[in-house]
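Customer escalation, tier 2.

The customer says the design service returned an amino acid string that "doesn't look like it belongs to this structure." They asked us to rerun it and document both sides in this ticket. The original structure tokens are below, unchanged.
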């Protein structure tokens, strides 16, 4: 099927057939076009969001000077003027997470709808599977940057404290018109998460499953486990890796694999680490550990700290040891 090549048969893999998905070149069929265009409009913003986050330096110096000199109005104003455009930027990031959530829902609907099985969907809707992967890649990239930038929460905390102080003094600042109290509360909950984008997608996937009562939960979890297996096979098999024309595709595959594992672990009743899981967790972790540590430590930490079932009694000691 075009860029999607079947590479292993049922007898070659314990958990069913595996496909090689060309993440680099898959193009939409006519049947995919409506959803593809909707999701593309969201993904077009993703690169800009990551670039903005990567260059986010914060207003630490201005805030420290203002706190150390509470009576100096010029320093207070300087800190406030430095923080306001940064908070507007944080608001854009938060609002993008809501659009990303809607895009994920559209893809889940397309990739799990009857009468096709998850494997058939991945074969028939290559471009949508690629977009699903791109959302996960963006999500883990965003969260890695956010986790290593304490300025984000420091800036937002200072903003909220200043708003509260001025409200007590019956003063309203212009910035409140852009980020009112209700929006600030929602943003505060979002940025309080260690991995806010991943939390957004996990909640969206769980909500999708709970709202679609007629859709067996396995249709969603099998879609996720199949994508995890696809990525693992592509990463651990040299003849498939050599098909990548872009050097970044390796990291792309790793991020996607970790992303679908985490979503699976949040949605599936017993999670990704149990013996009955359709994801080969040992294989996935080993593939990650074979890569340079500086490129995968954030991904291993995501498995350690953002999954739901790692510390369950059903998780084997071997798997826990691999993630220590």
């Amino acid at each position: 099927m075009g860029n999607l090549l079947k590479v292993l048969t049922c007898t070659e893999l314990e958990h069913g057939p595996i496909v090689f998905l060309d993440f680099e070149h898959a193009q939409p069929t006519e049947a995919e076009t409506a959803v593809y265009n909707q999701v593309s409009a969201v993904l077009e913003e993703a690169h800009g969001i990551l670039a903005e986050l990567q260059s986010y330096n914060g207003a630490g110096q201005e805030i420290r000077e203002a706190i150390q000199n509470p009576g100096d109005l010029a320093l207070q104003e300087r800190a406030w003027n430095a923080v306001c455009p940064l908070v507007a930027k944080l608001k854009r990031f938060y609002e993008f997470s809501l659009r990303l959530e809607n895009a994920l829902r559209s893809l889940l609907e397309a990739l799990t709808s009857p009468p096709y099985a998850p494997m058939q969907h991945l074969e028939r809707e290559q471009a949508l599977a690629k977009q699903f992967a791109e959302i996960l890649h963006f999500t883990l990239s965003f969260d890695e940057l956010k986790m290593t930038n304490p300025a984000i929460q420091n800036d937002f905390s200072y903003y909220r404290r200043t708003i509260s102080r001025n409200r007590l003094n019956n003063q309203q600042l212009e910035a409140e018109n852009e980020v009112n109290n209700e929006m600030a509360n929602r943003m505060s909950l979002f940025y309080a998460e260690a991995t806010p984008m991943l939390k957004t997608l996990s909640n969206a996937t769980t909500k999708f499953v709970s709202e679609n009562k007629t859709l067996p939960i396995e249709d969603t979890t099998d879609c996720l486990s199949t994508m995890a297996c696809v990525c693992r096979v592509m990463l651990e098999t040299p003849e498939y890796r050599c098909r990548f024309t872009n050097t970044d595709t390796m990291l792309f595959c790793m991020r996607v694999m970790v992303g679908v594992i985490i979503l699976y672990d949040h949605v599936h009743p017993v999670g990704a680490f149990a013996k009955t899981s359709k994801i080969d967790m040992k294989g996935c972790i080993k593939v990650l550990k074979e890569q340079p540590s500086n490129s995968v430590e954030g991904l291993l930490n995501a498995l350690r700290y953002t999954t739901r079932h790692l510390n369950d009694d059903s998780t084997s000691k071997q798997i826990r040891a691999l993630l220590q």
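Tier 2 assessment: The sequence is consistent with the input. Confidence is low (pLDDT under 50) at residues 1-17. The longest strand covers residues 4-8. Sent an explanation to the customer and offered a walkthrough call.
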